[in-house]
Amino acid sequence: MRYLPLTNADRNAMLGVIGAKSVDDLFRDVPREAYLTTLVDLPMHAGELEVERQMAKLAARNVAAGSVPFFCGAGAYRHHVPASVDHLIQRSEFLTSYTPYQPEIAQGTLQYLFEFQTQVAMLTGMDVANASMYDGSTATAEAVLMASRVTNRKRIVLSTNLHPHYIETVRTTAEAAGLTIVEGNETALDDKTACFVVQNPDFTGAIRDITPLSDAAHAKGALLVAVVTEIVSLGAITPPGEMGADIVAAEGQSIGNSLNFGGPYVGLFATRQKFVRQMPGRLCGETVDAQGNRGFVLTLSTREQHIRREKATSNICTNSGLCCLAFTIHMALLGEDGFRKLAALNHDRAVQAADKLAKVKGVELMTPTFFNEFTLKLAKPASPIVDQLAKDGIIAGVPVSRLKPHDRNATNLLLVAVTETTTPADIDALVAGLSKVLS
Amino acid sequence: MMNKQGRPTTGAATGNGELATISGHRGLDREVKLIFETGRPGASGVDLPEPELKHDRLGGLRRRGQIGLPGLSEPEVVRHFVRLSRKNYAIDYGIYPLGSCTMKHNPRLNEKMARLPGFADIHPLQPSSTIQGALSLIDHLAHWLKLLTNMPAVAMSPKAGAHGELCGLMTIKAAHEAQGHAHRTVVLVPESAHGTNPATAALVGYTVEEVPANERGRVDVAVLKSKLGPNVAAIMLTNPNTCGLFENDMIEIADAVHKAGAYFYCDGANFNAIVGRVRPGDLGIDAMHINLHKTFSTPHGGGGPGAGPVVLSAALAPFAPVPLIVHGPNGFELIEDDAAAKAHDAKPFGRMCAFHGQMGMFTRAMAYMLSHGADGLAQVSGDAVVNANYVLASLKDVMSAPFAASGPCMHEALFDDSFLKDTGVTTLDISKALIDEGYHPMTMYFPLVVHGAMLIEPTETESKHALDEFIHVLSELAKEAKGNDKRRFEGAPHFAPRRRLDETAAARKPVLRWTPPAKAQAAE
Amino acid sequence: MTTKYTKDHEWVRVDGSVATVGITAYAAEQLGDVVFVELPAVGRVVEKGGDAAVVESVKAASEVYAPISGEVVEVNTALTDEPAKVNAEPTGAGWFMKLKMKNATDLTDLMSEDEYQAYVKGL
């Protein structure tokens, strides 16, 4: 087997040093009734060529987003990732290193984490950010738990326009932790509420000034948790930190990361300086070494499970390392000008698409403000239309009913995302496709 | 004619290692500024078309003011990150013997497979007719995991080991609640457990009670049994445990746990020791997460992303979270909500994350499994255990191994610091001296049940030659620690990009981001 | 003024009805460099043996338990900026909090200086 270096001669020599008769002899602590004497009923080992063939066969049964006019969003967005990003994250020293627990030989990882934390704090308009979480939805769940710790309250209000999967994820984790979840708007806030969670742009694509919401939350002594599922939007719209958010939980996939069928992604988590010690997840901090040279270390670890155990701020033990590196590199390539231009380009294309689509008979644009995603109301149920158009080679977007199966008002709604990867020809194809199926 | 251009080519003329260079760089080891210190307005590493838009639809919320991001061209960005990368240790560079972390070779075939557009460029909410290959791959991977563990079901969506633990405990909680057993509020956790175990149990609202280890490094079964009662919801046990030992009494423990009406959660972090040889389902466990980034070699990537599918017993299977993948008349289908799940006799406790889990890790793990096959996987665990025992046997006399007398270890060899008693040298010093010798240190000070722990997990992908060199170095370090000349331990490492870092200062006055110089001054 | 000690390495010095509480030199040394101290709110009532504060070093966090029951009347806010005082002067400037003592009998089962030194020696 090409990955396993020991030869029979090596193994026998080593067993001699160990003083064991055989490999099986080393497993003598396993109860005999549970020790297999035959191989598990699976195929035998295979060479690279054979594995590639099998995997390629499966990959060929999927329709890659880049191969068709493509309009899915709803928390995952197709953007162009520069070639150098994927090249750099595959450097052995990044790809095959562990968590930087020995800082003297992990300054590469630690410095990019420090740069990442700075980028995220700048983008969100917050004071500090952590070294990333699993994804946007789990980061939101962590934000809710943190708000409960900060306020010492157990009631959580989730905006009804939060991504439905985020609502379910938060509900699952928070209820298990003993919190009460209420779905509603700012009128549901009371003086027992730990936080109000609001997404901007929201699940429908609409943008709003969340300042009045943070004022309403603060008036009740609650925190405002702002959720961003499309981080590119922060190149165009006012960041949550400038609208009174206390915690920002975001999905960072759009920058540096492929769609990957939903994961791995990179959760962003930012907050105010005064809440730092209540944050979940890894934090990288600046310090000096014994010779006074600047260096970086993981810090404030006493918040974490490996030290605090059952009193930790979270059970999280990883960050989204490599995805967070991809984010850092892509953002470094973009820079201020590139990132703003990318955002403007997304908005530009989305406006063009929305205006063209709104002219189709049987299509109504439901979101007057939006960034790069908007909701259409169709004259017919959206789900069968999406399936029909998929057969014609157009992936038209996400039917809202897929995410809100119990909401009767959602049946005819279609969520359409447009990015810099969408061409005018793609938009024309969707216009033509919808015109045909709606006529 | 005599060549007057000759110059010394031996190292004899070099001398003082403390010589300061003009640039601050030391040969290939370059000092690297932050991107914020080298970038400037106007530069960019991407070319994008000009937006045409005259009027925006942002509802008056256009972002004003500078974000503060630095501008850099592509060559500058590439150099920056390549230079940074050279400051990291890596598996591709040498043995990475972190116990409990399973730092094995990461085949590049797996990276290539994960990047096939048919896997990397598909959206989680595409119509199911356009993702049959992806669902088939997840189903196939699930099939392998179930066969390797002899468990009937697996929840694929957890995003890391700790997330898998959370999923497992929530499944257990749901099962108890379905039986009207919400009064079971205690989770038993051995004191040798990973920190994630008690942290997860507490997160789900359980009270944690510790179970001590016995003198053989295993769970004290008598104490465990005495703690099992009508208030116990579950036990969380790592097997092989964090001392690198197989819990001999697993079946007896499982019987006792079940008799008490509790569930048996196994932390599968150390599955690499037994894959292909022992199936956890045969040991009586009810739930176990599998770290795909350990046993199945998806890259650790400097701390993530991981993946933590959870295999489940028949008793727990109905409560697995959405999404579920089922096989219907039109091929594979994703079941994403409770109502749809009910039609398949499932009672999901909820949802772990927005989409379907770590697809990018599934493709890598699948390529790894197909490459190894049933025979290769059995060899993985066998060779991992041979390598660890070789390290243990070679070092137990010069160092001190608290449990070596009780028989072979599994995939990792545990040493304590009793051999360093009265030497003035600590576990930390040994670790840092190893860095100077060109090695990443072993896991230090974990597990907590032995003093000054040094936990070495070589994995199966180290050759005998590589291990012999490592053993030689560690053995000499141990002898020097006990000898008179301890200079190499003082202030080590000397030959790393950085000397020991001041973690106290970092924690007392946390600086967690770069701040522009003007602002930084104003803040002081 | 008498100073008494707990098995969890807190000290308590009583002056009239007010008791000053801190951690012992032994505890401070075991923890290593203290980097953060979380103090209770003034006005909070703590129970003997219950959580009162948290003291953290880089790699460890410990609860500080109230050696006696009482109301928190003052906390050492200087520790917020200078947690190093806990290491430098654990029984002086590194004090944690002052409690208004509820029951003088809370002191009876605590150790004297000599008893505590003997106890530490035995660890």
Task: Please give a structural write-up.
- Chain A is of the alpha/beta class and 439 residues long.
- Chain A folds into 2 domains: 65-80 and 335-438, Aspartate Aminotransferase, domain 1; 84-329, Type I PLP-dependent aspartate aminotransferase-like (Major domain) (Aspartate Aminotransferase, domain 2, 3-Layer(aba) Sandwich), CATH 3.40.640.10.
- Chain A is 37% helix and 14% strand.
- In chain A, helix 6 (136-151) packs across helix 7 (164-176) and helix 10 (321-358) crosses helix 13 (424-438).
- Chain B has 524 residues and is of the alpha/beta class.
- Helices cover 33% and strands 9% of the residues of chain B.
- Chain B contains 15 helices and 12 strands.
- Chain B has a 7-stranded mixed β-sheet with strand order 1-7-6-5-4-2-3, with helices on both faces. Chain B has a 3-stranded antiparallel β-sheet with strand order 10-12-11. Chain B has a two-stranded antiparallel ribbon with strand order 8-9.
- In chain B, a hairpin with a 2-residue loop joins strand 8 (324-328) and strand 9 (331-335).
- The radius of gyration of chain B is 27 Å and the shape is globular.
- Chain C is an alpha+beta fold.
- Chain C has a single domain (2-104), classed as RNA polymerase II/Efflux pump adaptor protein, barrel-sandwich hybrid domain (OB fold (Dihydrolipoamide Acetyltransferase, E2P), Beta Barrel), CATH 2.40.50.
- Helices cover 20% and strands 37% of the residues of chain C.
- Chain C has helices at residues 25-31, 78-81, 85-88, 113-121; strands at 2-5, 10-15, 18-23, 34-38, 45-46, 51-57, 61-65, 70-75, 97-101.
- In chain C, strands 1-2-3-9-8-5 form a 6-stranded antiparallel β-sheet. In chain C, strands 4-6-7 form a 3-stranded antiparallel β-sheet.
- The longest helix of chain C is centred in the last third of the chain and has 9 residues, at 113-121.
- The termini of chain C are far apart.
- The interface between A and B is large, with 210 and 206 residues.
Largest interface: A-B, 210 and 206 residues
How do the helices and strands follow one another from N- to C-terminus of chain C? Answer: EEEHEEEEEHHEH
Query: What is the CATH topology classification name of chain C?
Result: OB fold (Dihydrolipoamide Acetyltransferase, E2P)
**Which CATH architecture of the largest domain in chain A would you pick?**
3-Layer(aba) Sandwich
* Total domain count of chain A: 2
Low-confidence runs of at least 5 consecutive residues of chain A: none
Please state roughly what percent of the residues of chain C sit in beta strands, choosing from under 5%, 5-15%, 15-25%, 25-35%, 35-45% or over 45%. Answer: 35-45%
CATH class of chain C: Mainly Beta
Distance between the termini of chain A: 60 Å
Low-confidence runs of chain C (pLDDT<50, min 5 residues)? Answer: none
Helix content of chain C: 10-25%
Largest sheet of chain A: 7 strands, mixed
